[in-house]
């Protein structure tokens, strides 16, 4: 297993450099939006680090699927996976390397986002407002990080299963939006049966419940349906799919 090879080959491409540059710029913009403007709109005039990071979660919900899908399904789409398998015959080792490399890239970006959230909150609260609130940092770790981890796992599962950049991206980005919209609609109509069906595939809500320690056995169902089963099928397909 050589995740360093996959990490280096991904970072050496022009597309990855453009994507990472745009990602950092987007994180900077949203950090400024969340941290610097917050004191002006909050009644108490303070800036809360959790709120700033929630704002940063918007670009991260798009950046994470793009990186995860491109690193797992990109070579299948452009057919360069054949050269990779010729140089590194162990398919499962290649798969594990790509997953690990994608996880490292996403972890670095999330770490950058947390640092930007803290810096923007401090600047906005202490220099432009009535103070910065960092007491919610533990809540940030318990609620926001599990949601981002769920986004990464779902995106990796779609990349492994579908092995197509375009289709994987559409599903990885579009399906969570559809499920969250359906959740709002079911609350409006008050149907318990439909609410349970939506809850069974609501990975974001399940991740939040797992992070805060309020999850029951039912919250494991979205993890099984949207991550474990697609990933298992994707690993089998990765091992057996004919190349060429």
Automatic annotation (TrEMBL):
Keywords: Membrane, Transmembrane, Transmembrane helix. The chain crosses the membrane at residues 18-41, 53-74, 95-123, 143-162, 169-189, 209-233. It comes from the Bacteria. This is ABC transporter permease. It comes from Brachybacterium vulturis.
């Amino acid at each position: 297993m050589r995740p360093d090879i996959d990490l280096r080959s991904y970072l050496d491409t022009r597309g990855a450099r453009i994507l990472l540059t745009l990602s950092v710029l987007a994180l900077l913009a949203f950090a400024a939006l969340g941290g610097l403007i917050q004191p002006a709109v909050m009644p108490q005039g303070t800036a809360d680090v959790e709120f700033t990071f929630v704002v940063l979660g918007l670009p991260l919900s798009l950046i994470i699927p793009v990186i995860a899908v491109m690193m797992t399904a990109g070579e299948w789409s452009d057919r360069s996976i054949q050269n990779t398998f010729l140089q590194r015959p162990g398919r499962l080792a290649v798969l594990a390397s790509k997953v690990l490399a994608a996880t490292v890239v996403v972890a670095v970006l999330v770490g950058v986002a947390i640092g930007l959230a803290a810096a923007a909150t401090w600047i906005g609260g202490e220099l432009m407002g009535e103070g910065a609130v960092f007491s919610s940092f533990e809540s940030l770790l318990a609620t926001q990080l599990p949601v981002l981890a769920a986004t990464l796992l779902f995106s990796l599962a779609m990349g492994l299963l579908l092995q197509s950049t375009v289709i994987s991206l559409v599903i990885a980005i579009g399906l969570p939006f559809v499920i969250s919209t359906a959740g709002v609609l079911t609350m409006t109509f008050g149907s318990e049966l439909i609410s349970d069906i939506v809850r069974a595939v609501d990975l974001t809500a399940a991740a939040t419940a797992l992070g805060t320690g309020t999850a029951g056995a039912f919250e494991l169902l979205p993890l099984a349906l949207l991550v474990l089963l697609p990933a298992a099928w994707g690993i089998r397909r990765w091992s057996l799919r004919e190349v060429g």
